[in-house]
Amino acid sequence: MSDTESMEVAEVDAPAVPKEKSSTAQTRKSHLPWIEKYRPTKFEEIVGNEDTIQRLSYFAQAGNVPNIIIAGPPGVGKTTTILCLARILLGPAIKDAVLELNASNERGIDVVRNQIKMFAQQKVTLPAGRHKIVILDEADSMTDGAQQALRRTMEIYSHSTRFALACNNSEKIIEPIQSRCAMLRYSQLSDAQILAKVMDICEKENVRSRALKA
Ligand SMILES: Nc1ncnc2c1ncn2[C@@H]1O[C@H](COP(=O)(O)OP(=O)(O)OP(=O)(O)O)[C@@H](O)[C@H]1O
Ligand SMILES: [Mg+2]
Description:
It comes from Cloeon dipterum. By secondary structure, the chain is of the alpha/beta class.
């Protein structure tokens, strides 16, 4: 085989499209703020609250996950944990089988009655034995009326949909919802845990600073 022929074969073996795709993904990642770029995607990458993560890991392995509430201070990984859990349970189906509503979404009673109910009724192809997941961030800011409606939706669609709520103050979640969920409590991370994570990111980003070394 001549050199030209072997070059042509090499080009066919390595088509340009996947290369472009991966470099586009890389560029997209490099433009992300570090808080998103380094958001853990697996349980093992989440710092702290090991017991709770372990418990969730058991639930996920058994595929038998109840409705959950993760309560704790801001910025300790509540939303991240729920997203990791959804990824384990649903794999690629995550894009169709998860409804994520955060504080920037309107979450009054109408949203529960319409958007959440509609999602719970939708037919989606899921891995065997798995459920669709509704993620409600900052659930403690939902009105009592919306929470009452949510409680009924939780009951009616328990065969098809699981709910994962994150909140700072679990006392603001009405009792009937609390009693239908496993309550997981996150505590604040220690300074040492946070520093270790920051140092790790600085190393990956080639940030050198005397202040950090000190
Ligand atoms: N335990 C953790 N381990 C590693 N990174 C973390 C952890 N907690 C938070 N982070 C970082 O902080 C970002 C925000 O975390 P996350 O949104 O999960 O916090 P939260 O507990 O949901 O906060 P809030 O109460 O404000 O919604 C993540 O993208 C990640 O970069
Ligand atoms: Mg959150």
